UniProtKB/TrEMBL annotation:
Coiled-coil stretches noted in the UniProt entry, renumbered to this chain: none
UniProt cross-references to SUPFAM superfamilies, sorted A to Z: Nucleotide cyclase, PYP-like sensor domain (PAS domain)
Name under which the protein is recorded: Diguanylate cyclase (GGDEF)-like protein
Residue span, GGDEF domain: 169-293
Taxonomic source organism: Motilibacter rhizosphaerae
Length: 293
């Protein structure tokens, strides 16, 4: 049929331009030959075409800076492998810092079926990545106080103990229990009890060093993971600061509540795991609480 070739070419052009992802055609050297509408529109929104026709994809990757440099190098290596025929497909999730903020893309490259070169595509997955980050945060943090939960605490304690086993640092664990907290809940209700726990968490954060981990185990139980060359002395200093901080009344809608905190400290020993250190710190806390009665 006359004109079939022209019609087919027009259809292919229309399909290429209509693709929702950002798509570019690269030659054998990684130079951009052609980009679709989604690629051009994103370039305009992001402040200008940084990788338009005539631009070297590898040159753009080489100019990446900061945290993006490592991912750009991986993307360049993957695309090069496709162009060299080492692999039939390359895919990876890539974070890009743009004037629009940090955006995430699923990048993929496949060889062109005819001739040399590759088809490179970027599909934005920022919303999915942000959802994954939020889900990961919720899985590792206490929803009331925002502090690390038991899962994250044990993970950080295990890493600290592993570092201590290599002789890099020593590890101390503070186990803290709010005195008479059950009476607060029974008298004023859980809304006031929750407000007290949030305030306790806020004060604990102010008592520790930047590298320490404050977390909530459950109920009114909190812990501090303290690692460093002088962890024992640092833990003692933190305990004294906590004692001073908790001497101040906690203001709630019913008035001012005076609460104390019983603290137990355990040092990590060779061969300890996280559960063992937590157990000893818990026992030390109960001894301290018994001495306060």
């Amino acid at each position: 049929m006359p004109g079939t070739g022209t019609t087919s070419e027009g259809l292919l052009d229309a399909v290429f331009e209509s693709l929702p992802g950002q798509v570019a055609v690269l030659d054998a050297d990684g130079v951009v030959l052609l980009v679709n509408r989604a690629w051009r529109e994103f370039a305009e929104r992001a402040g200008g075409a940084q990788c338009g026709p005539g631009t070297s994809f590898f040159g753009v990757c080489a100019r990446a800076q900061g945290a993006a440099a490592g991912e750009a190098a991986l993307a360049a290596a993957g695309v090069r492998a496709v162009l060299d025929g080492v692999t039939r497909e390359f895919t990876m999730d890539v974070a890009c810092d743009t004037p629009l903020g940090r955006l995430w893309f699923s990048a993929s490259a496949v060889p062109l079926l005819s001739g040399s070169g590759a088809l490179l595509s970027y599909l934005e997955i920022t919303e999915r990545k942000q959802s994954e980050v939020r889900a990961a945060y919720r899985a590792a943090h206490d929803p009331l106080t925002g502090l690390p939960n038991r899962f994250l605490l044990q993970d950080r304690l295990a890493h600290a103990l592993a570092a201590a086993s290599r002789g890099d640092v020593s590890v101390a664990l503070l186990f803290l229990d709010v005195d008479a907290f059950k009476r607060v809940n029974d008298r004023f209700g859980h809304v006031v009890g929750d407000a007290v726990l949030v305030e306790v968490a806020r004060r604990l954060r102010r008592c520790v060093r930047p590298g320490d981990t404050v977390g909530r185990l459950a109920g009114d139980e909190f812990v501090v993971v303290c690692a460093g060359p002088r962890a024992a002395a640092s833990a003692g200093a933190i305990a004294r600061r906590v004692e001073t901080a908790m001497a101040e009344p906690v203001l709630v809608e019913h008035g001012a509540l005076r609460l104390g905190v019983s603290t137990g400290i355990a040092m990590g020993r060779p061969g300890d795991d996280a559960d063992e250190v937590l157990r000893r710190a818990d026992e030390a806390m109960f001894r301290a609480k018994a001495g306060r009665r």
